[in-house]
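Researcher: Quick test of sequence recovery. Tokens follow.
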């Protein structure tokens, strides 16, 4: 071999009659640690999927060719050129693994970016479809139809908790069901744990990247998924606060179907869908002429019921204000005990984050403010679409009266506000309500106020900020809401102005 070839910066092999005549040091290092001279080129060169090098030497005359291939036995990408010349051939070999790795990384990133853009558009389309939805069933149908029938996924199904709070009921499915969905349905009906069940229990999306290889998935689903080419699953709960209104299971044909960005997008979809479902329930309850009124009995699992027993007091709910995504601020009238003593007794009480005295008329009467956590029955009732009418607690028990839309499942709410067993239902009746001027006025005012303004105004009112003398200072109300005093006054002025505008607009005809 000439010196210029022996010292070349790439591997060089000379071949005659398919036998290696000579090679430089770089070629030996790339292909084998030994001198390959005298060996067949077929034995010297590793095998690739296409075996392009051997094909070049298969003909009577050597084929002039250039190619790049991956060789798994040496874990390298090689650029190979075969140049025939008067009975001999020269094979030039160069290691291009680093370049190919970077190229593949760029291609993967580009493909992922394109897929993410498609998924984002798809989810945006789903969210747009939720805007006009009038019921929970319509919302879940929109989600599964648009996801399941897209080119990105095999199928999507939606489920809802059964009435007793254990397990799931399948609502519907869209897309290519194959054998996988029937296996999923049978698993759900048998009560076995699925990714969707875990998503509901943990209130967080659950990702299965290798369906056939994940032992947490029931075997029948893994086998069916392998046959259908389903490789990954994302189960997304539809949540609002501490409430889970259902779940969607999305099944895909690739392991890379759900990147970090896509999982975040689906999690946001689940939260927005939960918000939409909650809003439709509240709207149905607000606009319905007929409502269901239910009286529940609350026991020792209610922190306020326990508080009434430990303080030997009667506690009557005056009103509530939402506190964050999963809490509730309650204002209660205290009878038979010192309000200050009741507040002090809340320190060790589970699911109460503390409170304060709003007003103390005498030693055994006044008003207090308590902050409840999401696990408390009153919070669960509100987050599940109920409107609290009254609540009284005495001697360790409570009576909670709520209004529900007529299509609401009373048993499911009983499970949510109960403990080990559903809360007992004392009275249930459907009643017709007629719109009143006061209700219409309230609706008109709610439309004018922002959510924050309404929260501030209601909190200040229930905290006796407008009483004389005041039951709460501006600083105390602001601290209760987690805002500054100046922000509180800003919201109060804005909401009071809108209140007066609504009042004078309402009575304009009476004055003329």
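Model:
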């Amino acid at each position: 071999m000439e010196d210029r070839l022996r010292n070349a910066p790439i591997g060089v092999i000379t071949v005659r009659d398919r036998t290696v005549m000579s090679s430089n040091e770089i070629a030996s290092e790339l292909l084998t640690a030994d001198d390959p001279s005298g060996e067949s080129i077929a034995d010297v060169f590793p095998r690739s999927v296409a075996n392009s090098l051997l094909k070049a030497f298969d003909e009577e005359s050597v084929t002039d060719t250039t190619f790049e291939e991956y060789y798994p036995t040496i874990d390298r990408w090689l650029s190979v050129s075969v140049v025939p010349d008067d009975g001999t051939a020269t094979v030039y070999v160069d290691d291009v693994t680093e370049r190919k790795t970077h190229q593949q990384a760029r291609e993967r990133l580009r493909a992922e970016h394109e897929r993410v853009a498609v998924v984002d558009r798809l989810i945006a389309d789903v969210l747009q479809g939720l805007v006009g939805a009038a019921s929970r069933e319509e919302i879940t149908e929109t989600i599964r139809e648009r996801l399941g029938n897209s080119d990105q996924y095999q199928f999507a199904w939606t489920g809802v908790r059964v009435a007793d709070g254990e397990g799931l009921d399948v609502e519907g499915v869209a897309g290519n069901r194959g054998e996988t969905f029937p296996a999923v349905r049978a698993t759900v009906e048998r009560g076995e744990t699925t990714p969707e069940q875990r998503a509901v229990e943990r209130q967080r999306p659950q990702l299965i990247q290798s369906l056939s290889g994940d032992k947490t998935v029931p075997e029948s689903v893994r086998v069916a998924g392998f046959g259908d080419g389903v490789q990954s699953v994302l189960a997304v709960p539809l949540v609002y606060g501490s409430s889970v209104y259902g779940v969607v299971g999305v099944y895909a044909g690739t392991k890379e179907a759900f990147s970090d960005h896509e999982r975040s997008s689906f999690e946001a979809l689940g939260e927005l869908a939960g918000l939409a479902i909650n809003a439709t329930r509240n709207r149905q309850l607000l606009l319905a002429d007929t409502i269901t009124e239910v009286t529940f009995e609350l026991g020792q699992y209610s922190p306020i019921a326990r508080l009434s027993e430990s303080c030997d007091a009667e506690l009557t709910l005056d009103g509530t204000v939402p506190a964050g995504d999963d809490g509730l601020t309650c204002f209660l009238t205290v009878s038979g005990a010192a309000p200050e003593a009741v507040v002090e007794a809340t320190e060790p009480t589970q699911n109460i984050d503390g409170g304060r005295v709003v007003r103390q008329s005498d030693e055994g009467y006044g008003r207090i403010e308590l902050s409840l956590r999401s696990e408390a029955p009153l919070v669960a009732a509100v987050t599940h679409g109920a409107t609290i009418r009254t609540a009284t607690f005495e001697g360790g028990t409570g009576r909670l009266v709520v209004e529900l839309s007529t299509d609401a499942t009373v048993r499911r709410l009983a499970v949510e506000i109960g403990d080990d067993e559903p809360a007992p239902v004392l009275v249930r009746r459907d009643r017709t309500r007629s719109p009143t001027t006061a209700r219409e006025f309230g609706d008109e005012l709610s439309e004018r106020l922002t959510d924050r303004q309404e929260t501030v105004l209601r909190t200040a009112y229930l905290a006796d900020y407008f009483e004389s003398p005041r039951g709460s200072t501006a600083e105390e109300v602001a601290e209760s809401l987690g805002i500054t005093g100046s922000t509180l006054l800003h919201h109060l002025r804005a909401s009071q102005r809108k209140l007066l505008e609504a009042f004078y607009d309402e009575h304009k005809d009476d004055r003329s």
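The chain is about 40% helix and 30% strand.
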